[in-house]
Structures are given as C-alpha cells and as structure tokens.
Amino acid sequence: MALAFTSSTAIHEQSKVSQLGKFQLLDQHKISSKLLNFSTRRCAVKALYAEPKRNESMVPSAATIVAPEVEEKVLEAEDYEKLAKDLENASPLEIMDNALDRFGDDIAIAFSGAEDVALIEYAHLTGRPFRVFSLDTGRLNPETYQLFDAVEKHYGIRIEYMFPDAVEVQALVRSKGLFSFYEDGHQECCRVRKVRPLRRALKGLRAWITGQRKDQSPGTRSEVPVVQLDPAFEGLDGGSGSLVKWNPVANVNGKDIWNFLRAMNVPVNALHSKGYVSIGCEPCTRPVLPGQHEREGRWWWEDAKAKECGLHKGNIKDESVNGNGNGNGVVQANGSANVADIFDTKDIVTLSRPGVENLLKLEDRREPWLVVLYAPWCRFCQAMEGSYVELAEKLGGSGVKVGKFRADGEQKTFAQQELQLGSFPTILFFPKHSSQPIKYPSEKRDVDSLLAFVNALR
User: How far, in Å, CA of 458 to CA of 440, rounded?
Assistant: First the structure.
C-alpha cells in the first residue's frame, strides 16, 4: 500500500482525492535526522483508494509515521534466491532493515500476539517507518487482546486488524457448530477465519514479514529462507511472484528469541508464563509440557505434519504422484516416506496388519500388549524413540509384550477406524481379558509415565 509525497506544485491535483486514515507521529527522538529534515517540506499524502482495483486492500492507517516517498526498488523474480543466500548469515536486524528499505510502506509485519513482538522490536530498532497488521479471528485468548493493546501503547503504533467475513463465519457455525474442527480438521475454520482475511490483507502489499523459524514446526518449516517469493499468496500487482515474504528470524533459535525479548524488556503474552509457547486461537491452543515441541500445543488432535493453518501452506512440500519416495524424508502421496525405520530393537515386536487384526479379535490373550502406532518420518515419534526402547527393556520378562505398528500410508485409514489413531504417536494397551484396546491419554512420553500407565492396567 504505497504512501507517496508530492511537492507543493502537485497539491492542487492531489486535493481532488479523498484523504483516508490518520497517521500517528512517533516521538521526535525516535525519528532519524533524515526524516526530521524532510518534515519541513510541504507535502500531501496520496489517497490509497484512488484506483478501484485496490478496493480490497488493507485499511490505510499506517502503523507508525507518514513516510517520505520511497524509491521503488524492484528485483527480478530469480534474484530473491540469490538475495536469500546473501542474507543467510545476516542478523535479524540487518534483514529487517533490508526489507523495510526495499519496500517502504508496501510491506507490513504480520503480528500474531506471540513471539512476533520480536519483529516489531527489530523494526523499531531500524529507525524506519513500519506497519503492523494482525488477524483477529474472534476466538483469540483474552491475554492476546491485552498484548495487542500493550504493544500499541509501548511502540506508539496502531495495529491494522483484519477480520473474517461475518456471513462466512455465520454459515460455518450454523451448519457445523462452534467446534467442528475437532471432528473434521481445522483447515475449514482456519480458511474462513484466517486465510481469507490474510489474502485480503496481502492484496494491498508487495511484501510481508513473518516470524517463522526453522526450529518452529516439525516437517514444515525446516527449510524456511530469510526471503522468498511467496508461493501461496498474491500481492498488490496480482499474479504469481507478486508478493515477497521476509522471515528475518528464520535462522534464530527459539531460546535466543526469548533472550532477546527479555533483554529488551518488551511486552509479551501472559500465556507464555502459563506453559503456552506457540499461541493461536483459544480452542486450538494449549500449554505444552517440558520436553514437548512447541507446536504440539497446536491442533494436538491431528497429525504432526498438519501443524499449519494455511497462512504458510507453501511450507508443505508437494506430495509425490507415484509415492515412491525420494530419499530425503518428504511425505509421499500415500502418507509414507522413504526414511529409516525407528523403534528397531529386539525387545520390540514389529506387527503387521494381520497381527494387529488378530490382537483386536482376541478376547482372552495370553499376555497383555503395549503397541505404539507410529510413522518413522514423524518428529514426535522420533523424539519418544529412546523412552519407548528403554521401556521395552524394562518390561522384558514382565509378561507384557511391547510392539510397534506403522500406521501411516495405506494403513492409516484402518488405524483411524479401528485403532483410535488421532495423531502420531498413538499408544495402545491391549489387556489380557478385554478385546478393546485402551488408548494412552497423556502427552507425557517419558519412561516413568508410560510405565505407570502399563502398571495400572496389567
């Protein structure tokens, strides 16, 4: 959304265009000397909605100050891969400064109310004007709204809020209820409440800034570059490649982000002190336990590979047509992957589909069984491998059989329908005198917790 300044000779022509939005000036000590010198010139703000094609662009109120005319700097599409390599070892502050310098008022920070406050702090430290927008889904935690207010006051800005279409929300709730996402997946609700409002917002921009990090989400963000052509959304000019996506903290560890936030003494979401790490909508977010990955608190009832809401769906790799695998762990069309197997030890029995079906049929077993339903590409399954192997060793000779069943790919539907599979890993206990397996309900997957579960049932 471009803000241009004209000299006094052009004011007469610009007076015909309605002025939209109010712009708040930062304190003078926050403004660079260059901007202070510029403020003595007579100038006018060009109306943002002068062209009909921009009717769906974001609200015009800038989040900081009226900026001088920014010289348009355009890179060819193929240059962004090189730019990403050039900035690979740059600091977040340098990357942020580069982004704001290139795009001026045509770029905005996407603020989710969590660690994204670090982006705002970096933008503030550059001394450049910057804009911030956020998606208000109508289902955020009260603490998130309180953070929005605290951030606005701390930085002297106005966040540009984007809201879902009321008619679409009404239709979804009336037809499926308030919590349909627990039953049929979160994608539909996220599409209405988040993705479509974001799409409207981005149509008024040429670039946006996100808080994505490589260590943030298993399987989806490990290759996030510091800058890229957005693979999923269109910008102001429309068409593929019309929007640039900046990820200044892509290479930063989550612990370092928090060290930065504490050092700068900036507002943070009160939910963080209650065990929340990755924060989204209230019904779909919960605290994580020590040792759990931060994204396990998001859509916990679904597979690890689905831990995206659609805002960054370009992170999810295209599935192979033939499902043969390519040797790098990318999920294939049948849900499997060409990766090394896990839980591979003499103390753990590998169960086939007939073997599991036989377990389900038996009403009087000779010994109880503990079985993990897993996918070898799943980071959460990989994380619990050591605990499960140690548990199998401890249960050796106890009369409890320990097994594993690979439940992705062609077996996934069967596991969902017959074995209570909700997400990977799912752990089941088959008692001696019951045909119905008992699902381990906890997210704690350490040896002691799993052993307590087994001892309580055998």
Answer: 13
